[in-house]
Specification:
There is one protein chain. The protein is an alpha/beta fold and 535 residues long. The chain folds into 2 domains: 352 residues, no CATH class; 102 residues, no CATH class. It contains 15 helices and 12 strands. α4 runs parallel beside α6. The longest helix is centred in the middle third of the chain and has 27 residues.
């Protein structure tokens, strides 16, 4: 009898080629049927316009207009229902299975690293297949494709995609599910580039200079393991570099920053009156730092270097918006969200363009679990970046046992509704929630949360508590994790306190501990709280 997806979701080893997958129906639900081959990548992507194309070819090209029945966009744009990813996977499979390193058409240094990552007896953490495949994709496109008769189609696709959307940059996106280890992929890419650059200083394909850009300070701090001199450096602690090559890593110049640092700062702080006095009737005073001064402030270690490799973490926040977004059907919140997305994306990509103009950027490698265009980008919301060349989805990660399996409770103790209220809880409570960040949470009472939210938390936690006890009785060492996603850090602090208990001063009895839901002692997973504004 075929096992159920919900009872046995894992089909493949995380370290081997994913040879099976669960079939999904049109709504994305498992049919309980196992397919004996790898899951194909299926996306709708904008079609990159070739630089040169005859008129007849343009007319005859088969395209999918999403205005025609797909409902993804009201903008007159051309989209393709297929992807280059599956064809590139096929080419990688053939290349990966070539018998000897001399057949791989890569440098001896690259061949040595590939052999190390594939066969080394790692003492602790071993690279997953999806991590190695992502790195192999970049290696193949960099070293093999330029001289491969079938490789030029992929390079032309990348060139057209970037010419259409990022004309000043050459970007390549790698899609990896959250939890699949993007930091390890970045470390492997840095090692590959650095070792080749040190041992082949005249090659223009390789560099020792790296700019790693993160969306916030929290993620930036986690990326410190990419520095060769960090105590927890992945190159040594995870054995990503052979012992005789580790000294080469000390030649790397790596700058890790968040995109906010690209904003030009004031060189001279002036009061409004003083600025008006100095300006007089002349042109407005320009007291912002220049692009060169910004680069000197953000990345002094890279000044003087050329052909820098940029690595974008959570790269879906970085794009150049396309004029003409259809805003007619947007609500006020949707319009504000789009404006916020575009402001961040504009700052991020403009910063990279400055680096390209002043220092030179050979390529930008984007890493994200969701490299899709956001609302307000000018592209259909949710369509894949067309420069994405590798994909390892959440379902792939679940089937390989790499990430936790999310389970949504189905019980609801609020009677009288066709659908559990918490399935669309935000629509019921949005006007009652705090709108600022963590700094304002201190004066708020967790017990003042709306009754609908409190009831939903009790219902959800009740389901979790039963699961926790069942797992404990079964002897499972890793407990389930209860996750609540909040709109900001102020809300997340209140929800955290409501569930775990909190300290407060009460007028009737003075200071003391409010038990809240009194569950923290029973659940070590309730140790942190984060909202959406993590920076």
């Amino acid at each position: 009898m075929t096992p159920s997806f919900f009872d046995q979701p894992i089909l493949n080893s995380p370290y081997a080629y994913p040879a099976q997958h669960w079939e999904l129906d049109e709504s994305g639900q498992p049919t309980q049927r196992i397919i004996e081959r790898r899951r194909p990548a299926e996306f709708i992507t904008p079609i990159p316009r070739p630089k040169k194309r005859r008129k007849r070819e343009a007319v005859n090209q088969l395209v999918l207009d999403l205005d025609e029945g797909k409902g993804l966009s009201t903008i007159a744009q051309q989209y393709d229902a297929t992807s280059m990813i599956n064809e590139l996977r096929r080419r990688l499979d053939l290349w990966r299975n070539l018998p000897t390193p001399s057949d791989w058409n890569v440098t001896p240094e690259t061949a040595r690293l590939l052999q190390h990552w594939r066969t080394h007896p790692f003492s602790s953490v071993r690279p997953f297949f999806c991590q190695l495949e992502a790195v192999e994709t970049v290696i193949w496109l960099t070293e093999v494709a330029p001289t491969d008769k079938d490789g030029k189609q992929f390079l032309e696709h990348l060139e057209n995609a970037n010419n259409d959307a990022n004309p000043e940059l050459m970007r390549l996106a790698l899609k990896l599910a959250t939890g699949a280890g993007k930091t390890t992929v970045m470390a492997m890419l840095i090692a590959w580039q650095t070792i080749n650059a040190v041992r082949r200083p005249n090659s223009k394909r390789f560099t020792r200079g790296f700019l790693v850009v993160a969306p916030g300070l929290t993620i930036k701090d986690r990326l410190r393991v990419l520095q060769p001199n960090d105590p927890d450096s992945y190159y040594q602690s995870r054995e990503l570099v052979p012992a005789d090559m580790i000294d080469d890593m000390n030649r790397a110049k790596i700058v890790i920053t968040n995109y906010h640092a690209f904003k030009l700062r004031e060189r001279l702080e002036l009061a409004k009156g003083t600025r008006a006095f100095l300006q007089g009737r002349g042109e407005a005073l320009n007291t912002l730092e220049t692009e060169g001064q910004m680069l000197q402030r953000v990345m002094p270690a890279l000044m003087g270097m050329k052909n820098i490799l940029a690595l974008n973490d959570e790269a879906h926040h970085c794009y150049r918006e396309k004029p003409g977004a259809d805003e007619d059907d947007w609500t006020g919140d949707e319009r504000r969200e789009a404006e916020k997305n575009n402001e961040a994306a504009r700052l991020w990509i403009s910063g990279l363009e400055m680096v390209k103009r002043k220092l030179g950027v050979a390529r930008v490698i984007d890493l994200s679990a969701t490299p899709f265009f956001l609302r307000g980008s000018g592209y259909a919301e949710g369509t894949l970046f067309p420069w994405t060349m590798s994909d390892f989805s959440l379902m792939d990660a679940i089937e390989c046992g790499i990430v936790k399996l999310p389970r949504v409770p189905v019980a609801d103790n609020i009677p009288g509704a066709d659908m559990p209220m918490y399935r669309n809880l935000w629509g019921h409570i949005r006007t009652k929630m705090p709108k600022k960040g963590r700094g304002t949470a201190g004066g708020l009472d967790p017990l003042s949360l709306s009754p609908q939210l409190q009831t939903a938390l009790e219902a959800l936690y009740g389901h979790y508590e039963k699961t926790f006890n069942l797992w404990e009785e079964a002897g499972l060492r890793v407990p389930p994790c209860f996750i609540v996603v909040c709109n900001n850090t102020s809300t997340s602090k209140l929800v955290y306190d409501f569930i775990s208990g909190f300290y407060r001063v009460r007028r009737d009895v003075g200071a003391g501990v409010d038990a809240g839901s009194d569950r923290r002692d029973n659940n070590p997973q309730l140790g942190d709280y984060r909202g959406s504004d993590r920076s």
